[in-house]
Structures are given as structure tokens and as C-alpha cells.
Design a protein that fits this description.
about 30% helix, NurA_domain, about 375 residues, twelve-stranded mixed sheet, 8 helices, about 20% strand, alpha+beta
């Protein structure tokens, strides 16, 4: 990738040479449509005795450890001509707030990924031979299975593919001298993807994390059921010991909050729940829940699902040793998350303004369309 390349100059070139031309071309090639695959079920196995299920976190020995954080962001412009999806990725660390970004932004160190951060999906059937696209490392029109992206694909499907590829490639660039935090599951479910791209991306992700101390952090647990489903067969014993019945709840978050209310009292200190063993394909993933009090005397907690390939309680201890934001997110993860979103928002604004000035009309789009409401 050329160094010191201004993003706005690059985007102007891409929009004029690639996006407008591609979305306006057509042929008689039929799209390849394949059913999406769903997420693996949420079942896991509690591998600790019930009397060790709740553990007080100890983090003194991890206070000086080196930790990297990685997060990606994606957005889409949906128009009458098709979809333009884009993604960015940011790496931060406990030493340097921004270790690298992609695509290149003035003032930030760059990640030399050489992977497309823009994907185009036309509303018309596309020819398999569009020579000018083979000269760009920034733009793709093809999924990993070799089929063209089309407007039949959902924006989430396209975004998920290009964003996850960028995150996995960025993961390979991080040195092996510290732990690595990923925003989201260690092995993402990729529920929007067709089976072939999904399998390819998961294979790349497993290669990238193998033999390394990579930690996945899931922040939103209002829809997660992994913990309560893992405790379902132990409901009566759990109720007897902790005065809360996991089978009565619809989400891990609501269950955990009632569990804390029934068993903890101020002053609150960080605790860990688990571990749960979950097999994703042939890969064992160990899951713990970090309960981080945002105030020692106020019932308000950050609840994070912490995933690792190693059954090591020190993983949760290490995460709890980090500085947290007021929202209950490790600070280095929040920096990567915010920066990645700012990059995609800026790129999207440039693309939208440019395309609309060229007469490409934006389409109304709502997330509710994906659930057929």
C-alpha cells in the first residue's frame, strides 16, 4: 500500500473509476443464491464444581502486562443502483492508544493489510470479466466463494464478510509479545454468511488465533443464553445453593443480575462466573463471565463474556486489571471501537455525498427489513 496516501484522494479515485462504473454496468449472468446458515446452538458444559462457580478476581500480577486490542466497524450505502459496503479495523494497546488503522488515515499509523475495505453489490447481473477491478487492492465485487455480491445479498452479509476478513488479517499483524483482545466472540458465529464464505473465514480465524493468547470479549448479553442453557440441568442444585433458578430466565444478563442481587452485598469487588466449555466445531472454547462493579456501593456492573482457547482463570484476572470506561468497557477496547466507527462514518459520508451528487439515489433502509417486519 502506498504510504502517506490521503484517504479523501483515494476515495475520489475509487468512486469515479470503480463504484459509479460498476453499479451502472450489467450483463446476463445470473446471481448465485445460497441459503444462509444459522449460529451454532448455545449449549455449553459447566466444568467447575458449583462451589467454585463464583470466584473473586485477583489482578495484581497482571497490572503491568502488555495487551493489544482489535476492533472493526462496517457500514453500507444502499442505493437504487446497488450496495456499497465498507469496513475499517483499528489496533490499540496498553502502550500505544492507536497502534495502526486500515484503511489509511492521515495522522494515524497504518496497518499494511492489502485487503479490500470496500465491497460493491450491483442491482443488475454482472459480467465475470470486468478488467479494471483486478487492478485495485481496495475494492472487491466478489465473495470468498467466487460469486458476485448483488443487491440480493443483505448489507449485513456483505459487511460481515469484509469486516471479519480485515479483523483476521489485522490479527496476524499483531506481535506475539502480549495478549490480544477481540471485540466480540473469539470465533464469530457469522450468521449472515452463506456456508462457503463462512467456512473459509472461520478457517482463517482459527489459523490466526492458534497458539496465541487471544481473548474474545462479548459486551452485549441481553440476547445471550449460553450461561443459562449450560446450567439448565443443574437448576435444582443451583437454586438450592444460590437461591436463583437459571431455567426461569430468557437471557444471561437478567439471570446474572438477579444472581448478584441474591448473593452479593456491598462493597462489591470484581468476580468471575464459570468456566463453561463450549465446542465450536472441533475447537474447544472456554467461557467465563467477568462481573466488574462500576462502584463499590452502587448496584451497577459491567458484565462481559470472556472467551479463550485456554482454561485459565488468569485470563479474566488480566481483563479485570485494565482501566474501564464509565460504560464498563476496557479502555483500550473502547478506543479501538470508537476510532473504527469514526473511520467508517467518515468514509460513508464521503461516498454518500459523492454518489448523490452524481445522481445515484439513496434507498430507504431499515434494520427491521431483516426480520421481515
Amino acid at each position: 500500500m502506498p504510504k502517506k496516501l490521503e484517504l479523501q484522494v483515494l476515495l475520489k479515485d475509487i468512486i469515479s473509476k470503480y463504484i459509479v462504473n460498476y453499479l451502472s454496468s450489467s450483463s446476463n449472468i445470473s446471481p448465485n443464491i445460497e441459503n444462509l446458515v444459522g449460529e451454532d446452538d448455545n449449549r455449553g458444559i459447566l466444568i467447575s464444581p458449583l462451589n467454585e462457580f463464583i470466584r473473586t478476581v485477583s489482578f495484581e500480577k497482571h497490572s503491568q502486562s502488555l495487551i493489544y486490542s482489535l476492533d472493526g466497524s462496517s457500514r453500507s450505502f444502499i442505493s437504487s443502483k446497488g450496495i456499497v459496503s465498507l469496513a475499517s479495523v483499528v489496533v490499540s494497546s496498553t502502550i500505544s492508544p492507536i497502534l495502526g488503522v486500515y484503511p489509511p488515515i492521515s495522522g494515524f499509523p497504518e496497518l499494511d493489510l492489502k485487503k479490500p475495505f470496500l465491497a460493491l453489490a450491483s442491482s443488475a447481473h454482472q459480467s465475470p470479466l470486468i478488467p479494471f477491478f483486478y487492478s485495485s487492492e481496495y475494492v472487491t465485487t466478489l465473495s470468498l466463494d467466487g460469486s458476485f455480491f448483488t443487491s440480493v445479498n443483505s448489507p449485513e452479509e456483505i459487511e460481515t464478510e469484509i469486516r471479519t476478513i480485515l479483523e483476521t488479517e489485522a490479527l496476524k499483524k499483531i506481535p506475539n509479545d502480549g495478549s490480544i483482545i477481540l471485540d466480540g466472540p473469539l470465533i464469530p458465529p457469522l450468521i449472515f454468511l452463506r456456508s462457503k464464505p463462512r467456512d473459509d473465514i472461520l478457517s482463517l480465524r482459527l489459523q490466526a488465533i492458534k497458539g496465541r493468547n487471544v481473548i474474545g470479549i462479548v459486551k452485549r448479553l441481553d440476547k445471550s443464553r449460553l450461561l443459562i442453557s449450560s446450567l439448565y440441568k443443574l437448576s435444582s442444585k443451583f437454586m438450592e445453593k444460590f437461591r436463583v433458578d437459571p431455567s426461569r430466565y430468557f437471557s444471561d444478563e437478567s439471570f446474572i443480575l438477579d444472581l448478584l442481587k441474591a448473593n452479593l452485598s456491598p462493597p462489591y469487588s470484581p468476580i468471575s462466573l464459570g468456566p463453561i466449555l463450549r465446542n465450536i466445531g472441533n475447537t474447544p472454547v472456554y467461557v467465563n463471565y467477568l462481573i466488574y462493579p462500576l462502584h463499590p456501593y452502587v448496584f451497577k456492573f459491567a458484565i462481559l463474556r470472556v472467551e479463550s482457547l485456554n482454561n485459565d482463570s488468569g485470563v479474566v484476572d488480566q481483563i479485570s486489571s485494565l482501566k474501564f470506561t464509565k460504560d464498563g468497557i476496557p479502555f483500550i477496547l473502547a478506543i479501538a471501537d470508537r476510532t473504527a466507527k469514526e473511520i467508517t462514518n467518515a468514509i460513508l459520508k464521503i461516498i454518500m455525498t459523492s454518489l448523490e451528487s452524481m445522481g445515484v439515489q439513496a434507498s430507504f433502509y431499515s434494520k427491521l427489513e431483516q426480520v421481515r417486519i
